[in-house]
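Can you give me the bound-state structure? Components:
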Amino acid sequence: MPPRVVLVTGVSRYLGSRLAAVLQADPSIERVIGVDTVAPKLDVQKVLGRTEFVRADIRNPLIAKVIAQAEVDTVVHLNVIATPLGAGGRTAMKEINGIGTMQLLAACQKAPSMQKLVVKSTTAIYGSSPRDPALFTEDVEPRSLPKSGYAKDAVEVEGFVRGFGRRRPDVTLTLLRFTNFTGPTIDSALARYFSLPVVPTVLGFDPRIQLCHEDDGIEVLRRSTVEDHPGIYNVGGAGVLLLSQAIRRIGRPSFPIPSPAVSLVAQAFRRAGLVDFSPEQMRYLQHGRVADVSRLARRFGWSPRPTLEAFDDFARDRIGLLSPSMIAVAEERVLEGMARRRTTSGAVGA
Amino acid sequence: MPEPVPSDNVIPLRAARPEPAPEPDVAPAGDWERKVAGGLAFLRRRLTGDYEVDDFGFDPDLTDHVLLPPLRPLYEKWFRVETRGLENVPDEGGALIVANHSGTVPVDALMTSLALLDHHPANRHLRLLGADLVFSLPVVAPLARKSGNTLACNADAERLLSSDELVGVFPEGFKGIGKPFSERYKLQRFGRGGFVSAALRTGKPIIPCSIIGAEEIYPMIGNAKTLARLAGVPYLPITPFFPLLGALGAIPLPSKWIIEFGEPIETAELGGAAAAEDPMLVFNLTDQVRETIQSTLYTLLMQRRSVFF
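Here's the bound-state model for the whole set.
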């Protein structure tokens, strides 16, 4: 059943604002309510159209009032923050993710109008280790649960969502585990990482990475909101890229760092505010992580674009010093030179 | 012509050997130029990341052009590997090759891969299942993935088998490869039969594979257990030449190898996933595979004239 009143949390942030913009353009949806602690920026406000913005903190019980008064039937919970740089530190991030989700779900549970809940999670909950299968399916038991950072928050959030599902079995529950986002406009830890002039890697490791294009992320959220797809889904492009391959495709030199020094370097980058890499992400740079996305394709009847395409769309405007086209030109030059030599020596021979 | 004429007993090993000298006034592109162009194209593909890897990280471009070629002399000249029963390995479709493991260093895995790639009519890539230690070591881990190997677990084995890959497994694991020289050619315990249930679930045939010669490359006469524990590895070999002769001791002895692929054991008719849940059936099948390999090993040893010829 299509939703009547949709509430989107984290509407001032990238995914939230883009999703709200898409939903408000859908005439079958009566109201779109966006919630966030800070008002959206001016350029974002323009795309939000008829979205009603409510300045509220999901950590505060007031959110229940918003849901009850507007008779919200669909909640899209996107206010799960991936990096502390944008949230004002790790403590605030942890609170928004953990306490925020608890309060929001408590409010949802009390609301008789609730019909659907869509929650954004991450494949980071599978962790990264050398002892895991090559592809994670949605029901795999990871060998090691993440112990810190966003991934740990996401494990907690999923726990709350499962609890909610038990208490409100009548609500359609969609849990989307996204792989790393990429694309021309999104700002993510991985995007910042690939934008460094020289990309640091872990010496002796070359992980497989999997990416989800930002537009596909929005599309999957939109489909989950307007269609009914109960269940847990890995969301990401099919196929993988090796980290070294990705760095080459974006035309940047890489700088391998021996693993004992890695945490020091990561700390330095964090202090400098360049890229925030948690210990989880450092492990990701060693062992990588790939999720099986076949369930999404099967049940949604649609799939995000492959990892390679998603990455190339991101890399197009960010090609570094060692641009692939330059290398292709160099190759042509050598071949031309050889052809010239052949004609001259051929002439001499004849 | 200054070019030395090859004597009669030199048989070209691979058809694609570079021709020795370019003829000066040969038409458009000479052979060596094509080689150079091919090399340049390869270099460009590598430098620009213009190649594809599968979900497991297998990079056929790198494997075929960089990782495997240096092993060919070892295969052809050093160990003079002889393959038998290649017709038992299907040209297409999934199959599980189960082999004995030995030799201190998993050279037998590499040689079996090369045997199937170079000498099987369908030039098949063997996807090996490795221990988790392999995937936690720097340098080794990415190389293992790029050459098509993955972690020995049922999820990966079944995924590979059902996507019609040729999967190789050494159920003895470290117990087989790190056993003392005195126990050579005595098969160790075959794990918990995980490989059998993977084959049952996917209905793919099991092909027993017996390898002789690998046991003698590094005769392990001792095991530095304390050091091994400190280094976090399952064993640390002492051979008559290693560590005594240092790096020289790391040269494998040139034993004569035979790799025999046995008759496939079909599993399609055995009942699929339900059969995989029947421990008795799994144990029996595991034993059957183990017995087949063991008896083939004894037969091959009888036929071998000496360790080195």
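A couple of observations. Chain A touches chain B through 43 residues (CB under 8 Å). Chain A has a mean pLDDT of 89.
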